[in-house]
Design goal:
The chain has about 140 residues and is an alpha/beta fold.
């Protein structure tokens, strides 16, 4: 079966229902796409949880974790900025922590990761930018006003 992303209406529902976004591969360098996207999502009111084992200290003012399993709060969305070949392992970790959605950023797709996440009960979004989708679907914020 061929993978297909959730409908636009479902993406809107996912974003509206989400608060905590764990960003796997979030860079501490301000010129990186992961940083810019996460900063914009933080400005929209989402709680960004950086996941980067190589980072030294906080990113975007938030504690940085080495792995998803280290995060002490529930995670709604696992947003991934890693190469496609690394995403099956991230999908396994997302299932293990009980995340609700695995979101692979623009240019990232993995049928294996999608299958792992879906089998674990997660919704999956691939090859889409969370910031772009949020800006289109919720231009006035999560309340929709």
């Amino acid at each position: 079966m061929t993978f297909s992303n959730p409908t636009r209406e479902r993406l809107k529902e996912i974003l509206q229902a989400s608060q905590n976004i764990a960003v796997v591969g979030l860079s501490d360098k301000q010129d990186r796409v992961s940083y810019m996207v996460s900063e914009a999502m933080q400005a929209k009111g989402y709680t960004i949880i950086p996941v980067n084992p190589a980072a030294k200290g906080p990113i975007l003012g938030q504690t940085t974790y080495a792995a998803l399993k280290d995060i002490p709060v529930p995670v709604d969305i696992v947003n991934v900025f890693r190469r496609s070949e690394h995403t099956p392992e991230v999908a396994e970790e997302a299932v293990a922590i009980g995340a609700k959605t695995l979101w692979l950023q623009l240019g990232i797709a993995s049928d294996e990761a999608a299958a792992i996440a879906e089998a674990g009960g997660l919704e999956v979004v691939m090859d889409r930018c969370i910031k772009v989708e949020d800006s289109i679907l919720l231009p006035h914020g999560k309340s929709g006003q």
